[in-house]
UniProtKB/TrEMBL annotation, chain A:
It comes from Paenibacillus monticola. The lineage of its organism: Bacteria, Bacillati, Bacillota, Bacilli, Bacillales. Belongs to the NifD/NifK/NifE/NifN family. It holds the Pfam family Oxidored_nitro. This is Nitrogenase iron-molybdenum cofactor biosynthesis protein NifE. The keyword Iron does not apply. Residues 1-31 are annotated as: Disordered. GO terms for molecular function: nitrogenase activity. Keywords: Nitrogen fixation. GO terms for biological process: protein-containing complex assembly. Transmembrane segments: none annotated. Pathway: Cofactor biosynthesis; Fe-Mo cofactor biosynthesis. PANTHER family: NITROGENASE IRON-MOLYBDENUM COFACTOR BIOSYNTHESIS PROTEIN NIFE. Residues 36-428 form the Nitrogenase/oxidoreductase component domain.
UniProtKB/TrEMBL annotation, chain B:
This is Nitrogenase iron-molybdenum cofactor biosynthesis protein NifN. Residues 19-426 form the Nitrogenase/oxidoreductase component domain. GO terms for biological process: protein-containing complex assembly. It comes from Paenibacillus monticola. Keywords: Nitrogen fixation.
Length: 453, 442
């Protein structure tokens, strides 16, 4: 595959908002990478920590995936339980609806969750299980929300799954509750999943600026808080294309203005906080935010100084495979790291435009092709480090390329001012590790000159 | 002896892993191979992510990327496209088509599609086979052994009638079960070859998933047993299968080629190691190498040192059937009470065990094993072990909370010693923690 330039990028609307001008591109058999819609739906909903998440299908969908995400909880952990109807041959033949009903009853009785999310899988969709009816009946009988999530793997990509999960929230959750006390000026964070605890860093920042976090959608969320998300004054979509539709719909239904932002990098963080205050139309809050961001930024400049010296001019290839690409580019730029290659396989036209605004003209776009294409770019552009998802981590290790994990399985939080400092540290530690030299030099007996005594 | 099941409609914290993951694992042990999972993207993506997390290695796998309309109209068109792409781009030596629950329920006939595909393309020199592995049956273990069986079937078909065989009595085919780590397979190969045999492991994850520094990225498997060695293994004078689940593939070789086989159900502990080495000693006529005599004494000495630690202790084991059997045999030698044994599905091996076996999940493990001192199972058990205040010993698949788990060795005398020490250390640390907290409470 030839590298393509930014003006050639094919627009992709997949996973983004209505109206869709083009259908989602079909994954190419034999070279498809990435998860399915079921995976996507779980990524969006599993961070609702106190709810039960029941997978209706044979075992693999739940059995091969539970406890695999880096989203953290500050309290309840029911969402970390793997629930599955675990259908067997006979269930497939005679239908699994009874088992589903019994399972919902069992979970409701034993764990008393505030809500149960029920996920369809390819097999249950194929044999025509009427999940919606079972959930509706159970919800009425048990008097708790039982929410069907119709996002079986074979309907499409992970992004689509995110979006379908957002639709389930709109249809069944948002607007069904009221906050315990009135919060006049609250912000919803949409699409922030508290990977490695990033939500907590953001929350801390917002608190210091005196901005109230209304509903977390969905990082470290409690079910309850999402029911009153419609009472927020502002929606922030945290670098997630797929949930933009949710924000748009909330704007038209509840008149909540939204903006898209990110917390990767100091500039983006400052912009996001300012934007919140601006949309609240609260002068006092704007002043508070200005004071906070100025203070944080100047402190950060001090803290970053030693790292910037080490990172200046270093080249990185970025392959997050999603919407995060443009926001991470800003963060890297602030550290003096040059992005010489960037993955655009799952980015929309809009994302690509944002990427283009942030990178130099000679940056290579990697539209698809997976690991071998990334490696090729790293080699050709003489990149010093690769920044990608866990799936590609060991590919980089095999090629002895320094690596930073940026996707949902990661263990380090990079959001906010603190996060940028952490990213700078991680980059320097990774580049400075002695292993790169050790692994690159041969065993003493394999060194060339045979007469060297 | 008795197989039990707790009555509940839902699987809570499953121990079961989809069969197709076992197939992908088996194929990682073959050189330049590519498993193609015939299902939706997630069917392969979850397997890939989980295997990567456990082995900390890139995993070769592809998918036919079925979407709803493909399933309704023609799923095999996707498969054909996937085959075309994989063949033309990567030229693998071995291709395995792994049928999933999705293709099974939709009634997709990929077996005959593959046959005609091979005929039309005049495919020679490689190995292409299919295996049906819906996840509403079996678990990782059955997926693994069925795939090895399908691979052997295909090899037998390819080389033709048994007359052309040139038996090499100094060569042994090793069929290692799914529960063995790359470190285990390496140890077994070493033990067998120490008695003067050539040994070919099918599959051989010890050279692919043990960690290597080959550069030059390939989407195919790196390392593992090459196809020509696999074909050569058909000339072996004997098959050694480790784990009851590998008896079927061994029997295939016996039925088709007349190769005698020996199954070692257990692989762990003194008795199991004794059996293996005694057997090798008898069939080879070679004396047992000195280092194994030493290792045997080392093991016995470490068991003597550790037995204080195990006195009065009880364990809970939640593992795949063959692994459960092996670990249980080893624990028996330590004199530890086996409070609860939980496994993923019923196999002849667990049915014949003289213990009470539960088919269930990790929630059952928590319930039945309440009060146990040591929890042995995969990393999903961490929080359950915490809840019942048991020391946690990671074993089986997946293990993500420990570096180098894939190299930990449990077979042979050395393996038994490693595990005995590890378990003893965990109990010792737990005891120290308890002591500390009881002082604080005073």
């Amino acid at each position: 595959m030839e590298p393509i330039r930014k003006d050639e990028i094919d627009a992709q609307e997949c996973g983004s908002v209505t109206p869709k001008s083009k259908p989602c591109p079909r994954p190419k058999p034999g070279e498809a990478a990435g998860g399915c819609s079921f995976d996507g739906a779980q990524i969006t909903l599993l961070p609702i920590m106190d709810a039960a998440h029941l997978v209706h299908g044979p075992i693999a969908c739940a059995g091969n995936s539970w406890e695999s995400r880096g989203t953290l909880t500050s309290g309840p952990s029911l969402s970390q339980y793997g629930f599955a109807t675990d259908l067997n041959d006979t269930d497939i033949i005679f239908g699994g609806e009874k088992k589903l009903r019994d399972s919902i009853n069992y979970i409701a009785e034993r764990f008393a969750p505030p809500a149960i999310f029920v996920y369809a899988t390819c097999v249950t969709a194929l044999i025509g299980e009427d999940m919606d009816a079972v959930c509706k009946e159970a919800a009425e009988r048990l008097a708790i929300p039982v929410i069907p999530v119709n996002s079986p793997g074979f309907v499409g990509s992970k992004n689509l799954g995110n979006r379908l999960a957002g639709e389930a929230l709109l249809q069944y959750v948002i607007g069904t509750g009221e906050p315990e006390r009135e919060i006049p000026l609250g912000v919803n964070l949409i699409g922030e999943y508290n990977i490695a605890g990033e939500m907590w860093d953001i929350e801390k920042l917002m608190n210091s600026a005196g901005i109230t976090l209304m509903s977390r959608i969905t990082g470290d969320a409690r079910y309850k808080e999402i029911t009153w998300a419609h009472r927020a004054k502002v929606n922030m979509v945290v670098c997630s294309r797929a949930l933009l539709g949710l924000a748009k719909e909330m704007e038209s239904r509840y008149n909540i203005p939204y903006f898209e932002g990110s917390f990767y990098g100091a500039k983006e963080t400052t912009y996001s906080l300012r934007q919140m205050a601006f949309l609240m139309n609260d002068r006092e809050m704007e002043r508070r935010v200005d004071r906070l961001t100025e203070r944080e930024e100047s402190r950060l400049i001090q803290d970053l100084r030693p790292y910037r010296k080490l990172l200046k001019g270093k080249k990185a290839v970025l392959y997050t495979g999603g919407v995060k690409s443009w926001s991470i580019i800003s963060a890297l730029k602030e550290l003096g790291v040059q992005v010489v290659g960037v993955g655009t396989n799952k980015s929309t036209e809009d994302d690509v435009r944002r990427i283009a605004d942030r990178v130099g003209d000679d940056t290579e776009y990697i539209p698809e092709g997976g690991a071998s294409r990334i490696i090729k770019t790293v080699r050709e552009r003489k990149a010093d480090i690769m920044i990608a998802g866990g799936r590609n981590m060991y590919v980089a290790m095999k090629e002895q390329i320094p690596f930073i994990d940026i996707n949902q399985e990661r263990h380090k939080a990079y959001a906010g001012y603190e996060g940028l400092l952490r990213l700078a540290k991680e980059l320097t530690y990774s580049l400075a590790n002695p292993i790169w030299k050790l692994a690159a030099s041969p065993a003493p007996w394999d060194k060339e000159d045979p007469y060297d005594h | 002896m008795t197989i039990n099941k707790r009555k509940k409609p839902t699987s809570v914290n499953p121990i079961k892993i989809g069969q197709s993951l076992g197939a992908v694992l088996a194929m990682q042990g073959c050189y330049r191979a590519m498993p193609i999972v015939h299902g939706s993207q997630g069917c392969s993506a979850f397997s890939k992510a989980l295997l990567t997390r456990h082995f900390r290695e890139p995993i070769a796998v592809q998918t036919s990327a079925l979407q709803e309309m493909d399933v309704i109209f023609d799923a095999n068109r996707n498969l054909e496209e996937a085959l075309n792409t994989v063949l033309s781009k990567h030229r693998p030596d071995i291709i395995g088509i792994i049928g999933t629950e999705l293709t099974d329920v939709a009634g997709v006939d990929y077996q005959s599609m593959l046959k005609s595909y091979k005929r039309e393309r005049n495919m020679r020199g490689g190995l292409a086979f299919s295996v049906t592995l819906p996840d509403f049956r079996g678990s990782l273990e059955s997926g693994f052994s069925s795939t090895v069986e399908a691979m052997i079937d295909e090899m037998i078909q390819q080389v033709g009638p048994r007359g052309s065989r040139n038996v090499n009595t100094r060569q042994i085919t090793l069929l290692p079960g799914s529960f063995l780590t790359p470190g285990d397979v390496m140890e077994l190969k070493e033990i067998i070859s120490a008695f003067g045999f050539e040994v070919i492991a099918v599959p051989d994850i010890s050279t692919s998933l043990s960690g290597h520094l080959l550069t030059g990225f390939s989407p195919l498997t790196r390392g593992g047993v090459p196809l020509d060695s696999m074909l050569q293994s058909l000339q072996s004078g004997l098959t050694i299968a480790i784990g009851g689940s590998m008896e079927r593939p061994a029997r295939r070789l016996h039925n088709a080629l007349g190769t005698p086989y020996k199954v070692f159900q257990g692989a762990m502990g003194l008795k199991a190691a004794d059996e293996l080495l005694h057997f090798l000693h008898q069939i080879s006529g070679e004396s047992v190498p000195l280092r194994y005599c030493w290792q045997r004494e080392n093991l016995l000495d470490s068991m003597l040192d550790a037995h204080f630690q195990f006195a009065g202790m009880s364990t809970l084991i939640a593992l795949e059937p063959d692994h459960l059997y092996s670990v249980s045999q080893w624990l028996e030698e330590l004199g530890v009470e086996q409070k609860a044994l939980i496994t993923s599905y019923e196999t002849p091996v667990v049915v014949e065990m003289e213990r009470e076996i539960w088919i269930g999940d990790l929630d059952d493990a928590e319930f039945l094993g309440k009060g146990a001192d040591l929890w042995i199972g995969n990393s999903h058990g961490i929080s359950g072990a915490e809840r019942i205040d048991a020391a946690f010993m990671p074993a089986g698949f997946p293990v993500w909370n420990e570096l180098g788990a894939y190299m930990s060795t449990s077979v042979g005398y050395r393996g038994a010693m490693e595990w005995t020490n590890k378990a003893g250390n965990l109990l010792m640390q737990r005891e120290a923690r308890h002591r500390e907290s009881s002082i604080r409470h005073r």
